[in-house]
Automatic annotation (TrEMBL), chain A:
Species, as recorded: freshwater metagenome
Domain Aspartate/ornithine carbamoyltransferase Asp/Orn-binding: 161-306
The keyword Zinc belongs to this UniProt entry's keyword annotation: no
Reactions catalysed, as given in the entry: carbamoyl phosphate + L-aspartate = N-carbamoyl-L-aspartate + phosphate + H(+)
Role noted for this protein: Catalyzes the condensation of carbamoyl phosphate and aspartate to form carbamoyl aspartate and inorganic phosphate, the committed step in the de novo pyrimidine nucleotide biosynthesis pathway.
Entry coiled-coil feature ranges: none
Known pathway: Pyrimidine metabolism; UMP biosynthesis via de novo pathway; (S)-dihydroorotate from bicarbonate: step 2/3
Name the UniProt record assigns to this protein: aspartate carbamoyltransferase
GO molecular function annotation: amino acid binding; aspartate carbamoyltransferase activity
Biological processes annotated in GO: 'de novo' pyrimidine nucleobase biosynthetic process; 'de novo' UMP biosynthetic process; amino acid metabolic process
Family: Belongs to the aspartate/ornithine carbamoyltransferase superfamily. ATCase family.
Pfam families hit by this protein: OTCace, OTCace_N
EC number: 2.1.3.2
Keyword Ligase carried by entry: no
UniProtKB/TrEMBL annotation, chain B:
Positions in coiled-coil regions: none
InterPro entries recorded: DHOase, DHOase/Allantoinase_Hydrolase, DHOase_cat, Dihydroorotase_CS, Metal-dep_hydrolase_composite, Metal_Hydrolase
Pfam families documented for this protein: DHOase
Keyword Ribonucleoprotein attributed: no
Cofactor list: Zn(2+)
GO molecular function: allantoinase activity; dihydroorotase activity; metal ion binding
PANTHER family cross-referenced by the UniProt entry: ALLANTOINASE (PTHR43668)
Identification of the protein by name: Unannotated protein
Biological classification of the source: unclassified sequences, metagenomes, ecological metagenomes
Amino acid sequence: MKHFISTRELDKAEAISLLDATHDMAVARATKESSKTGLQGMTIANVFFEDSTRTRLSFEVAARALGADVITFTSAGSSVSKGESLKDTLKTLEAMGADAIVLRHAQSGSAETVVRSGWVGSHIVNAGDGTHEHPTQALLDAYTVRCRLLGSTSQGRDLTGVSVVIAGDVLHSRVARSNLWLLSTLGATVSVAAPISLQPRGLAGMGVQTFSTLDDALDSDPQVVMTLRVQRERMSSGFFPNESEYSRFWGMTAPRLAKLGDHAIVMHPGPMNRGLEISSSVADSARSTVTEQVTNGVAARMAVLQRIMGGNR
Amino acid sequence: MTTIVIRGARQMGGETADIVVVDGLISGEGQSTVTADRVIDASGLIALPGLVDLHTHLREPGGESSETVLTGSRAAAAGGYTAVHAMANTNPVADNAAVVERVLDLGVAAGYVTVRPVGAVTQNLDGLQLADIGAMAASRARVSVFSDDGRCVADALLMRRALEYVSTFGGVVAQHAQDPSLTVGSQMNEGVVSTELGLAGWPAVAEEAIIARDVLLAEAVGARLHVCHVSTAGAVDVLRWAKRRGITVTAEATPHHLLLTEDLARGYSPLFKVNPPLRTAEDVEAVRLGLADGTIDIVATDHAPHSVDAKEGTWADAAFGMVGLESALVVMTKALVETGLMNWQDIARVASTTPAQIGGVPGYDKPLAVGSVANITLFDPTPSTPWTADRLAGRSVNSPFQNLTLPGRVISTIFHGKETVRDGLVVAAEELMR
């Protein structure tokens, strides 16, 4: 594996292998055992054309934990996000010695375009491309699900029999897409709960069951509820009327948490809008995996960087 | 006196006969005994009337890095065209007599095809106030097709006024049917593939709703309407209904919408980014059937050249559009003739006679008839070869057909009695000057 662009292209064996590698990294981190064996002497460039402090920091921590040097380029301005500038920026960073480029970009397909174009020879990691994919988020989410539901027996296993509800703005969510593909590959059943205005076309054709409201979805007794961040500008563009309606029909609240089975978990990729898509009592409850997801994110990104770059040594 | 004898071509795919061209006119068929300046062995070739494109972007003035009137004229000749309609979205916009006369003069100077300037409907294509429609109609360019192509005349009242005012001068409004509010940020056809790729969807209804509105407006004010680049099955249905109702509407389909589908967006290659977007296989089939049954009147290329830079970045950054003049006839052969939907007479109708009629281009009403202006295309339908960039003759190479195996080749194009393409190659500009 030279690049990590998409969860859609992962087969089941690769996906399980990455989850297992994530586990090894997580154990190494938790026991303070040094894992700085992997990528010493290598340079990883974090190239963020779009603000995402937590993803950027997570990749930085992961790279440093593996012994790599990190250089960071951030530019949220639209004037430099044009194709030519993307090309020139990446060529410049490669010329400075970047062995891998971790790319966050506001446009769907940007990471795939960089790989296809051959502009640079570096490894490319997709850290989120527009409304398309966020594959390391999906990996850390799947790992979190596997840890929580399967516990100490989880190594080597897939997610057969696990049912997951993704709730919220699936239309604009790269997290939802990457999760949908990875979880399905791992054998989980994925359904979606969202207003129809925020459901993309063709979900049924992708094997996804759709529910109009979160209550309808919870009646199916899922083991995992994955809430998505709501962008407030969706209200002004008419996808839904206001926050109270959203919260009423699609918010993960304490009464809804009570409807879930004993071991069911609630996830959120962060940052959360407390009181909108998730209530504080749910977010801070023992069922919430929000902070574990952040911890696991470092391990998952270590696993990915090690996987694509480790063979180069 | 210059004489060309074309030996043994099948006239629009039918009877084999010789064609004699004398001083720019088709003189006597079937009597090739004159002393010819040039004899073309056309056995096995199909003779068609010179093709007429109602929808071409020549980019000049303002976009010379991607095409000029001269380079676009060469691309047209290579594709078997003898007349093109140059769209108005240049810089400056062709919204006044000076620009359309300039484009007309550049076309005459280039000498490969008749260049008919299209005038903008609204000033600067802004959709707010009518352009100098009368002045353009009365200019030396004799503009009769008006279009804001690239943008839709979205405001219903302004569209009504445009239909009325353009009909005052005997012209036609060619509408780019795209409701702007339904397509904010849209990147590709809305459906399973847009969901998968995370690209903002471009719903079919954005095209269909405007066409439905406009045919009713055209009926209400008694004006002619032409609909550009029909791409959806629903749009074909609306047009079929309108024609049955007796509304004076004509419509065009592009070669790419007759062959390519949205699946090509997978991989995010901007070569497949176009407005309107590539649609589904069902839409392609409906557009083909619409052409075959006359619901759609013509094939028009929407030849839209773009520089390599404009087509190499991310999908959202890249420009909309594809070059299409050089490949149009081979794509029609693949999509319409080889499928049995059309014969060569039908091709002559949808790619020459009818577009000339809609655009008011004289000399195309009696294809290949004695006494007509000698605009002739000789096409070899047999070789099936990979379509490669070396078949392109304009300044830009953004062809979506590259590496597809497509049938046929334009061997010869004759414009006003002069060869502009000989043995499959575009004739040098210096030779045309002579």
